[in-house]
Inverse folding.
C-alpha cells in the first residue's frame, strides 16, 4: 500500500512527538524501578505484599535494611509505595528538600488521616506547631513545678503508697494515667487535669484514632469521607470534649475580652489552652476542642514510649541503685527543679537506651512526595510516594551500636562523660537515633516529653522497687499494625513503695 508523503511525514512527526512526551515518563519510571523492591515486583505480587504489610512492616523493613542499607529500597502499601532511606548522606538529601516537595505534614495526614480522626481544620492548618515550638519550649522551666507536683501526686494514687507491699500493675494503664495527669496539668491546668471524665476521654482518643486509621486503611482515599461516617468517633469525642473544656474556653475568652478592655495585668493562666485562645486563629469551642484533642493524641507517645522504660527497670533491678544515687545526689544539691533534672545524665541515658530498643514505630520521619524527588544517584521517587526512615533497623545496627541487641542503660551517659559529648542526650537528633524523627520536622514536643519522662523516672527510682512477675520474659512484647507499634497492653510489672 502506498502512503502519501504528507501522511508519512505526519506519522514520523507523531512518533517523534510521542517519544518526546513519553520519554521523561518512561525514564522516570525506569529510575523509580531502579529503587529495589522488597518482595514481588509484579502487580499481583506487590498487592499481596501490601496486604501482608497491613499486619506490620518491621520484618520486611529489617530485611531491606540488611540487604540494601545505604541505598533506598521500597515496600508496597495498598495504595502507595514507601521508599525507605537511612544513613547520613541520604537523610541529608531528604532534609534539604523544601516542604513543597517533601511534606511531613501531608505524610502524617495520610498516615493518621487527621481530617477524619481528629478534625478537618486540624488537618488543614497546623498552626499549633508554632505554639509548641515557641511557647511550650520557652516555658519549660515555669511549667516544671506543675509537672513535678502532678507526677508526685498521681504516682501515689496510681502505684500505691503502702510500704513493703508488692503490687502488680498493668504497665500501660498505670503509665498513661500518671503521664496524662502531668501533661494535662502543664497544658490545660487545674482542675481539668484531675477530672476523671476528661482523663478517660484523653485515654480513649488515641485508641479511637488508631482504630479508625486501621479501618480507613482498608479503603481507597476517595471513599474515606463515607467510611469515616461509620468508623470515626471524631464528632462524638469532640462533643464529649466540649462538655469538659467548653465552659473553661468560654470563661477564659470572657476573661480575655475584659483584660483587653481594662488593660490591667491579671493572673492569666500560662498554659497551652491559654496560648491557643490568645492566638485567636480559632475561636469556636468545636475547633479549639479538636485542637486540644490533637495535643492529647500527640502526647500519647510520651506514655506508650515510657512502658519499655518501666519494663527495663523491672527486668534489671540492679540498675535501680546507681540511678537512685544520681537522683539523690542531684536533688540534694538543687532540689526538685528543672535544673536538677537537666543534670541527671544516667536517667537520660536509661531512657534513651530504652527508646533505642523499644521503638515507637518501625518507620518514622514520614515525608510525602508532592513533586518528583531525585536522589543524587539519579533514582527518582515519584509524586504520591512516601519516604521514611527505618527506626528499629537503625537502632539495632551493629555497626552503629556495639552489642546492639544488649540493653546497656548507661552507654549514652558513658559517651557523654568520656567524649564530653552533649549530643548523646535523649533530645539530640542524629541519623543514628531516630525516636524523634529528623531534620526541621523532628518532634517539637520532645523537650516537653523528655522533661516529663525524666521527672517520672527520677521519682519512680527514688520511691519504688520494681521487679517482673515470675516467669515473665526479660524483653517486652509489642504489637504491630502497618508502620505503627504499641506495647503489649497486658504487660504487668510489680512495684513496691520504699519511702
Ligand atoms: C516520647 C514522646 C514522643 C515521641 C517519641 C514523638 C515522636 C515524634 C516523631 C517520630 C515525629 C515525626 C518527626 C519527623 O517526621 O521527622 C513527631 C512529630 C511531631 N510531634 Fe512528637 N513525639 C513525642 C511527643 C510529642 C509531644 C508531647 C508533642 C506535643 C506537645 C508532640 C508533637 C509533635 C508534633 C506537632 C509533630 C509534627 C512536627 C512537624 O511535622 O513539623 N510530640 N513526634
Amino acid at each position: 500500500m502506498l502512503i502519501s508523503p504528507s501522511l508519512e511525514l505526519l506519522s514520523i512527526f507523531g512518533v517523534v512527538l510521542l517519544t518526546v512526551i513519553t520519554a521523561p515518563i518512561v525514564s522516570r519510571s525506569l529510575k523509580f524501578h531502579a529503587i529495589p523492591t522488597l518482595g514481588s515486583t509484579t502487580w499481583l505480587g506487590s498487592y499481596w505484599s501490601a496486604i501482608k504489610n497491613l499486619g506490620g512492616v518491621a520484618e520486611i523493613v529489617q530485611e531491606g535494611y540488611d540487604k540494601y542499607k545505604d541505598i533506598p529500597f521500597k515496600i508496597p502499601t495498598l495504595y502507595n509505595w514507601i521508599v525507605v532511606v537511612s544513613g547520613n548522606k541520604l537523610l541529608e538529601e531528604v532534609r534539604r528538600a523544601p516542604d513543597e516537595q517533601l511534606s511531613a505534614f501531608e505524610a502524617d495526614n495520610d498516615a493518621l488521616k487527621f481530617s477524619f480522626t481528629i478534625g478537618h481544620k486540624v488537618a488543614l492548618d497546623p498552626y499549633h506547631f508554632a505554639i509548641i515550638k515557641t511557647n511550650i519550649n520557652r516555658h519549660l522551666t515555669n511549667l516544671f513545678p506543675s509537672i513535678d507536683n502532678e507526677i508526685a501526686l498521681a504516682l501515689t494514687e496510681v502505684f500505691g503508697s503502702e510500704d513493703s507491699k508488692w503490687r502488680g500493675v498493668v504497665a500501660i494503664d498505670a503509665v498513661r494515667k500518671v503521664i496524662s495527669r502531668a501533661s494535662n496539668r502543664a497544658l490545660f491546668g487545674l482542675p481539668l487535669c484531675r477530672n476523671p471524665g476528661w482523663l478517660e476521654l484523653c485515654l480513649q482518643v488515641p485508641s479511637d484514632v488508631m482504630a479508625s486509621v486501621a479501618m480507613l486503611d482498608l479503603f481507597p482515599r476517595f471513599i474515606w469521607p463515607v467510611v469515616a461516617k461509620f468508623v470515626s468517633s471524631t464528632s462524638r469525642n469532640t462533643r464529649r470534649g466540649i462538655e469538659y473544656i467548653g465552659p473553661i474556653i468560654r470563661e477564659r475568652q470572657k476573661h480575655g475580652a475584659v483584660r483587653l478592655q481594662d488593660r490591667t495585668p491579671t493572673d492569666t493562666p500560662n498554659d497551652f489552652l491559654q496560648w491557643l485562645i490568645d492566638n485567636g486563629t480559632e475561636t469556636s469551642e468545636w475547633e479549639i476542642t479538636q485542637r486540644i484533642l490533637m495535643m492529647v493524641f500527640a502526647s500519647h507517645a510520651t506514655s506508650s514510649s515510657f512502658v519499655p522504660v518501666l519494663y527495663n527497670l523491672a527486668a534489671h533491678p540492679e540498675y535501680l541503685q546507681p540511678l537512685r544515687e544520681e537522683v539523690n545526689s542531684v536533688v540534694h544539691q538543687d532540689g526538685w527543679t528543672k535544673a536538677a533534672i537537666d543534670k541527671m545524665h544516667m536517667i537520660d541515658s536509661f531512657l534513651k537506651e530504652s527508646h533505642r530498643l523499644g521503638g515507637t514505630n518501625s518507620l518514622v520521619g514520614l515525608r510525602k512526595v508532592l513533586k518528583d524527588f531525585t536522589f543524587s544517584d539519579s533514582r527518582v521517587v515519584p509524586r504520591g510516594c512516601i519516604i521514611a526512615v527505618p527506626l528499629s533497623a537503625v537502632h539495632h545496627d551493629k555497626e552503629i551500636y556495639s552489642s546492639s541487641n544488649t540493653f546497656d542503660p548507661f552507654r549514652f551517659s558513658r559517651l557523654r562523660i568520656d567524649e564530653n559529648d552533649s549530643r548523646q542526650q535523649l533530645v539530640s537528633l542524629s541519623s543514628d537515633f531516630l525516636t524523634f524523627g529528623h531534620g526541621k520536622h523532628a518532634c517539637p514536643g520532645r523537650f516537653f516529653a523528655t522533661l516529663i519522662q525524666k521527672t517520672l523516672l527520677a521519682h519512680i527510682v527514688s520511691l519504688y522497687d520494681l521487679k517482673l512477675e515470675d516467669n515473665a520474659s526479660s524483653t517486652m512484647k509489642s504489637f504491630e499494625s502497618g508502620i505503627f507499634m504499641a506495647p503489649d497492653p497486658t504487660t504487668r510489672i510489680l512495684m513496691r513503695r520504699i519511702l
